[in-house]
Amino acid sequence: MATVADISLSAAINLLSSLAFLLAFAILRLQPFNDRVYFPKWYLKGVRGSPTGSNVVKKFVNLDFRTYIRFLNWMPAALHMPEPELIDHAGLDSAVYIRIYLLGFKIFAPITVLAFMVLVPVNWTGKTLETPRAAKDLTFSNIDKISVSNIPFGSNKFWVHIGMSYIFSFWTCYSLYKEYKNITGMRLRFLASERRRPDQFTVLVRNVPPDPDESVSEHIEHFFYVNHPDHYLMHQVVYNANKLASIVAQKKNLINWYVYYQNKFERDPSTRPTTRTGFMGILGTKVDAIDYYTSVIDDLSKQEAAERENVVKDPNAVVPAAFVSFKTRWGAAVCAQTQQTSDPTIWLTEWAPEPRDVVWENLAIPYFELNFRRLLMSVSLFFLTFFFMIPIAFVQSLANIEAIKKVFPFLMPIIEKPSIKSFVQGFLPGLALKIFLMFLPRFLMTMSKVEGFTSLSSLDRRSASKYYLFILINVFLGSVITGTAFQQLQQFIDLPSTEFTKTVGSTIPMKATFFITYIMVDGWSGIAGEILRLSSLITFHLKNTFLVKTEQDRENAMNPGSLEFATSEPRIQLYFMLGHVYAPITPILLPFIVVFFAFAYMIFRHQIINVYNQQYESGAAFWPDVHRRVIMGLVISQILLMGLLSTRGSENTTLVLIAQPILTIWFHRYCKGLFESAFVKFPLEDAMVKDTLERAVEPKLNLRVYLQNAYVHPVFNGGEFEKPEIIDDEEDNPLIQTKRTTHLSSKPESDNETGSY
Amino acid sequence: MATVADISLSAAINLLSSLAFLLAFAILRLQPFNDRVYFPKWYLKGVRGSPTGSNVVKKFVNLDFRTYIRFLNWMPAALHMPEPELIDHAGLDSAVYIRIYLLGFKIFAPITVLAFMVLVPVNWTGKTLETPRAAKDLTFSNIDKISVSNIPFGSNKFWVHIGMSYIFSFWTCYSLYKEYKNITGMRLRFLASERRRPDQFTVLVRNVPPDPDESVSEHIEHFFYVNHPDHYLMHQVVYNANKLASIVAQKKNLINWYVYYQNKFERDPSTRPTTRTGFMGILGTKVDAIDYYTSVIDDLSKQEAAERENVVKDPNAVVPAAFVSFKTRWGAAVCAQTQQTSDPTIWLTEWAPEPRDVVWENLAIPYFELNFRRLLMSVSLFFLTFFFMIPIAFVQSLANIEAIKKVFPFLMPIIEKPSIKSFVQGFLPGLALKIFLMFLPRFLMTMSKVEGFTSLSSLDRRSASKYYLFILINVFLGSVITGTAFQQLQQFIDLPSTEFTKTVGSTIPMKATFFITYIMVDGWSGIAGEILRLSSLITFHLKNTFLVKTEQDRENAMNPGSLEFATSEPRIQLYFMLGHVYAPITPILLPFIVVFFAFAYMIFRHQIINVYNQQYESGAAFWPDVHRRVIMGLVISQILLMGLLSTRGSENTTLVLIAQPILTIWFHRYCKGLFESAFVKFPLEDAMVKDTLERAVEPKLNLRVYLQNAYVHPVFNGGEFEKPEIIDDEEDNPLIQTKRTTHLSSKPESDNETGSY
Question: Which of B146, B128, B147, B148 is nearest to B137 (CA)?
Fold first, then answer.
């Protein structure tokens, strides 16, 4: 058990490293040659200069020392942009994402104050740990004196903790309710004020049944002419262009190499660069690089042209799915929400994702296969979560010194050296685990992809759920019970269910210092490292040196990155859970969490303004998931508190505490009913309002032309994969901005919350 | 543990009593004066004579002895009616309901054959119970020799049981799948071939928000004119006529009494009957009965007229709900399935129930209250299920001899007699429980009503779920673990979760004989008693004697009853579960279940043809519930088998067995996705087909007139509460019967199944 001194030391180290990161960032960002790493968003927006605007004088290094003095002034700048502008600049997804941190701050700041005012004095006067018997017990420190461990067995003071737990839960639910309401309002206003977009008129139709007499396209047309006679406008079939897409991607890669050698040759015209034709340019015969790549690219271009023609002409390349567009938003809203035929496995309709959000390869999975894939992935997720240690342990057992000696005997003299040996022994076993954890989000994303979701945004949301489960079981419970998830599972099965919560609950106070350290390392230094963007910095300069010829190339060399919802949101949830678990038990942990939320809010606000470029815009469709997971954390904390108190001689409190999770779950269901449909359904009234307005403003709009090429596989659209060109096609004369406030936001209480809006 | 002789005796007794019931029924049904008790359905249909048709000669007693000889010929007669005619005659709900019994027969008949061919020999040769040690153990009987108890500890023979369990599960799932598909097809054909009905065009709109400037009616009209401009036709507001309805009901009751005294006076004109004005005609001053009731009824009539006017004129009597009708079925289908505004708590639309199916008093519950009520009822259900023994034990402790002596000392001499004393002591404690169990379905129904469902059919379905839970925990688990549900709950909490299934699993073989007896008493004799309709017989003759004056009165005196879905379906589910639990363990139980299903199928087929009058027609909307509960029983049986085998030295089989419930649950989800939407959604294609046909056949139909009074509170409709007059208003020239087969039924494999259709 760490003492106050240990914690202080750790805090000092982490504060210093955070400060070092921030300092490095402050210096690097002021150098003009890093401008594209730290302000790519502005380049993408077309506002070329960095936001400060005056530093373009010198080309590479900033010599204006006055700017170094105010090295932290990006912080107020990040907070300065008002929310409506932020939404306009970075999109609703990003603006709402950083509100998760704000929500954490809003929840835990008052809880911290209250806990320090009430619980700390109560715990301090508990005096259990000051008795001689306890004093001898060296596992207790000063931190425990202000935790629940200091309360005597069976004391009445536990009622204070129970009362506070109720207050904390109530405050959390209240904040969650307000935030859900607020974000629902933001989403509705966002959707209402949006410009005309192809997906507003379009429905994704899947599982079109085969017809012996008609092609897929004809069949679709006839079906919708019959069943939506007044509203059907047109449709766009989906081609199976996966092969073509891979050719295009391959070609793009080769062009990169071609440019690289071209540049090399231009800088040093004396020797023509050479390469080898085999594996990765290392094996095979030596050839002239520029000629080689020119010929290979020519070959691929021919292949591409043939395949392109093939896809368009071959009727079998049309998959049984299509994007069907309607004359009005009302018509599309109706079609997306209704069932078309009595067989629910065919003619499935759902609101079309944005064109750039579509996962093209998943559009044509048959119904049974889809179900089977989901079963398979559920089972896999279970095994991944509970048994991932088995293959890693196996790899670890192979990757030891003895094994290395056997396989690479020539390394013997090196690794026999004591310093290197200890390094290898200390480092190797962890390596397999580190690599696994690094690739875990990608595994999970692949699993979600296999499950057949049709939009990137739903893939992200789904992967986040999986990752949350993994973190909950392997990081949180794993740290508390200290054992592998598989051992926990065994415990969970073998112990009575009450016993399990008791075991976990009673271990929790002892783990407080561990989690405090974790928060400082992962939450403070980790977040500070995020702003430095070290890997992007290096990649950009490498690319800039070797590949960039034109401004356009430099543009492409930027990697603005984006909010990785699938991995970062579940991590935030861990902080929510830690806060809730420790709030009534060891309140000393709370300030660390509050600092994390405030700091992370600032950092990410800066990042979404200056750096990240969003991949898609889902209109904050992830909020129901965030809400649900916060509630889950809260319920887990309530159950663990029950377990803890029942080991402290307060069994009679169980009845009082059991109402808490029930009420919380009910609250969740209530909120779900109240707000969730705003995130999954499409009210007809709102569609009607936009239709009517549009008809009044642009009576002669030719929607057919507007939608003509909206949902074409990106590979047909200039050959650039994953480039949201279509979105940029939007008209510049938008629809009148509807200032109409929704029912929700017109109520007075929400105005307080959305004051900045 | 009962021996084979015990079981045989019990079987003989139950067979005899069943036979006695059937005999009594056979004799009573042939008497013309019982005709209205045993063939009310035909009277309601207007086909007056009993189906045999020749017995109307003698007025009271049937003297044609030849008919007595063929006293069982109702059985083939019941099976004779082909299914399409049955649907036409008794409705789809009833026709599908009896298919539950048929499904049970189809599932368990082959399982029984297989179990007797494979498992019985395997168990018989197990020989554990023939070892001297076991032979001394008196708790084993011959029945156990063919149960799994006869297999030695850790034997490899258990693999046979596991294999059979997989085969049984597979066969059950296959049958369930075929049946679900078949019933989905039946429902779709039924809906497609239905005549024009008001509810096809109508949507129930609830939670109409208040508007400061407009009345509810105007607000609704404006809203739908704006948001469904092409489809909105008209609407009907809902009045809060609860008070009026109670006046009408009171008046009807008084009229009954008036008629009773009138009859009495007519039969004996010498003395005018008298009554007392106080409590139930027992206390208070003595008055002339006919004059008294005439004046009271006059008073009530005036009150009724005043209230009637009041309701129609008072704007506050209009509740914020309405039945909105559309020009086409397509328009109604769209409105029912879509969300109207961005606030999901207002303008809630759902497909309107049939007029006779509406629960009028539940139409106006606000959103929050509805949620709160559901929470309250869930908690109540939990307490009712687990703690119902507490108040009953309390009542029982009061209702003993000593307490009676104290309260009614004058009874002392009587109850001190040994025979009476022992009767009271044996009878009283059970009485409280019996009364509770009798009223339980009504409690549950009331609870469902409080939850705010808007149709009788959904109330029935909801109550069935509650009752199933109660039976599962208190009858099934209660019999197996022999303890109150509360003690089970404690065990469940205190034991490790595996231990609980082990305990239950290992007790199961020992309870086989108990359940065999239970099946015979409840399933054989109970069902045979059902056909006798003893209580209806008595009530009818009492009413006939005292209240009936006209043919119309006699019509009213008939109480055809109906299938009590809420209570009888959960009971069938118990048989499904028993069958599944015991199939791999004690196959001797299976024949009893098969006989039950076959016998009940016949009885209830007879009843729905000749007796029951359905209250509403939901188009077999309950099937997803039935399917889900059979699956639940199957999963429980699979888990219990796992528990049992792990106590028999076959722990290593757990991994093989655990896949079973996972696959079964996946199968359930798969079926749900495949078929459930046919029971909850309304495909646009089908609506369009009917609309188009109708437009072609009756181009001049005035829908407005047709729907004018469809959804008027029944109290305004001739003052008769709960009489489905509106339904009879249907045109006699129906729409062309669409012979169009759905996608589902056009596939070849379903044709085998629906051969009789």
Answer: B128
Q: Between B230, B492, B682, which is nearest A230 by CB?
A: B230
Burial of A232 (0-12, 13-18, 19+ CB in 10 A): buried
Quickly count: other Cβ atoms within 10 Å of residue A658's Cβ: 13
Whether the Cβ atoms of residue B223 and residue B362 lie closer than 8 Å to each other: no
Place of tokens 């007790």: B507
User: Chain A residues with CB inside 8 Å of B669's CB?
Assistant: 371
Task: Name the residue with higher pLDDT: B582 or B553.
Answer: B582
CB B643 within 8 A of CB B498: yes
Query: Residue B286 forms beta bridges with which residues?
Result: B276
User: What is the model's pLDDT at position B423?
Assistant: 67
Q: Distance between CA A677 and CA A120 in Å, rounded?
A: 42
Considering only CB atoms, A666 lies closest to which of B334, B375, B495, namely B375
Residues of A in contact with B340 (CB under 8 A): 683-685
Residues of chain A in contact with residue B346, where contact means CB-CB under 8 angstroms, are 743
Task: Kindly determine whether residue B341 and residue A228, on different chains, have CB atoms separated by under 8 Å.
Answer: no
Q: Considering only A596-605, B104-113, B389-398, which range has the smallest mean pLDDT? A: B389-398
B631, two tokens = 């699956």
ipTM metric: 0.72
The residue of chain B with its CA nearest to that of A333 is B338
Whole-angstrom distance between the N-terminal and C-terminal Cα of chain A?
Answer: 47
Name the strand (E) or helix (H) holding B641: helix B623-646
CA triplet A745, A750, A756: central angle to 5 degrees?
95
Which secondary structure element, helix H or strand E, spans residue A747, and what is its range? none
State whether A339 and B681 contact (CB < 8 Å): yes
User: Helix (H, G, I), strand (E, B), or coil: what is residue A277?
Assistant: coil
DSSP code, position A734: P
What local confidence, expressed as pLDDT, does residue B65 receive? 63
For the entire predicted model, the pTM comes to 0.79
- A337 vs B226, B337, B662: nearest CB: B337
Q: Give the containing element (helix H, strand E) for A512.
A: helix A512-518
**What one-character-per-residue DSSP string does A136-162 give?**
H-TT--HHHHTSGGGSPTT-TTHHHHH
pLDDT confidence tier of residue A755, bands split at 50, 70 and 90:
very low
Question: Amino acid identity of B102?
Answer: L
Segment B432-445, tens digit of pLDDT: 777 788 888 888 88
Tokens standing for residue A392: 């890693």
Residue of A nearest to B665 (CA): A375
- The token pair at B50 is 């009993």
Q: Which residues of A touch B228 (CB under 8 A)?
A: 684
Is B337's CB within 8 Å of A333's CB? no
Q: Which among A680, A669, A584 has a CA at the least distance from the CA of A631?
A: A669
- Count the residues in chain B: 757
A61 within 8 A of A31, measured Cβ to Cβ: yes
Q: Which residues partner with B238 through β-bridges?
A: B319
Question: A312 vs A2, which has greater pLDDT?
Answer: A312
Structure tokens that stand for B483 in this block: 């303890």
Tally the residues of chain A.
757
The secondary structure element, H or E, covering residue A678 is: helix A677-680
> How many Å apart are CA A250 and CA A313, to the nearest integer?
23
Please give the span between the terminal C-alpha atoms of chain B, in angstroms, as a whole number: 47
pLDDT at A399 > cutoff 70: no
Q: What share of chain A is helix, strand, coil (3-state, %, to 5)?
A: 70, 5, 25
